Amino acid sequence: MAGRRVEVVHPNSGWPEDFRREAEQLWGIWPTLLLYLHHIGSTAVPGLQAKPIIDMLAIVRDVSELDGHAPVLEKLGYRALGEHGISGRRFYQKGGVQPTHHLHVYPPGHPEVARHLAFRDYLRALPGDRDAYGSLKKRLAATFPEDIEHYMDGKKDWVQAAMRRAEEWWAIVPMVLITGPVGVGKTTVAKALAVRLESCGTAYWAMDIDRLTDFAPRSPGDPFGFGMSTAGISSLWPVMRSAGVRVVIFPRVVESRLEIERLQASIPGATALVVRLRASLETLDGRIKGRSVGPRQAWDLQRTRELLPLMEATHASDVVVDTDGRSPDAIAKDIQAVLVRRFTIG
Asked: Where are the alpha helices (DSSP H) in 88-126?
């Protein structure tokens, strides 16, 4: 673009707030169309040197509906550039010759959504690659201060190689299955793990799968509704992935290796980390009696006695954690440490 300077600057702590302000304006004009807004690109990676351009990724119900919205966006300073070389996208630019904002708009599940999120989160997780990329951009900007084409060409090979690594990393979806008998604290530990992941910037989807089995009648041969629950997970996954989900957390009674395999099959690339919680029978009885009464309590107590020997015998767990005398956060911290070692996560 003629007249455009190539400027790479040190990280600016104000970039996330700039994104937030723009996001609020966009939600104001697309309240029923917009599904999610991501801050992407180099300004979304803490510690990365970047061109001072806020890149935003919008997920919308239907991109074709945007074609009549150009006048509204123009009032916010955005110029519509159509698909701009990528089928199924709408692209907008703010700031003229020296742009300040880019807006990329896609429907849920578009392959470019995964590419953007994979590259951003990979650089967030791998500081060595982040710093190498920043140094390369700084060097190229100094060499080609008035030539954006040569600047882009200079980093092309590095970006393509890093993108391949990022996509391989992103394609593996850690699925934390927190299992154990009734009353052991599966849901509580799942919530504690979610808090820990959020605090370090790792996107997660935590859901009690049993909520997908609240229907009747159940199919003969499938009394716990497992078939429909895994179908529900598969249907929800493209939307959750477009929201940037990296780690899936499912608290659920898992009785066999077959159930683990079926849950993994519900999400492409899922790799299960099965965490079995255990506690003494005395502890479990106390928890059950404290939370349920009548027929439900009797069923829970019986179910716990059935599950204890079954789970000890299946050997389907990757990690076994004693919960007696330990807080949910302490248990979640141990699980988080395993995620870091195995998946470079949070």
From this structure: 111-125
Give Cα separations from 190 to 24, 196, 225, 328 (angstroms).
Answer: 31, 10, 21, 8
Task: Answer whether 9's CB lies under 8 Å from 53's CB.
Answer: no
Structure tokens of 16?
A: 């996330």
Find the distance separating the first CA and the last CA of the chain, reported in whole Å. Answer: 39
Q: What is the pLDDT of residues 78-96, one digit of tens each?
A: 999 999 999 999 999 999 8
- Banded pLDDT at 1 (limits 50, 70, 90): very low
Could you read off the pLDDT of 229-286 as tens digits, one per residue? 999 999 999 999 999 999 999 999 988 889 999 999 999 999 999 999 999 999 999 9
What is the C-alpha separation between 172 and 344, in angstroms, rounded?
Answer: 11
Which long-range CB contacts under 8 A does 332-336 form with residues at least 24 apart? 332/189, 332/192, 332/193, 332/195, 332/196, 333/196, 335/176, 335/178, 335/189, 335/193, 335/273, 335/275, 336/193, 336/196, 336/197
β-bridge partners, 36: 59
Structure token digits, residue 60: 């919308």
Paired sense of beta strands 34-40 and 90-94, if any: unpaired
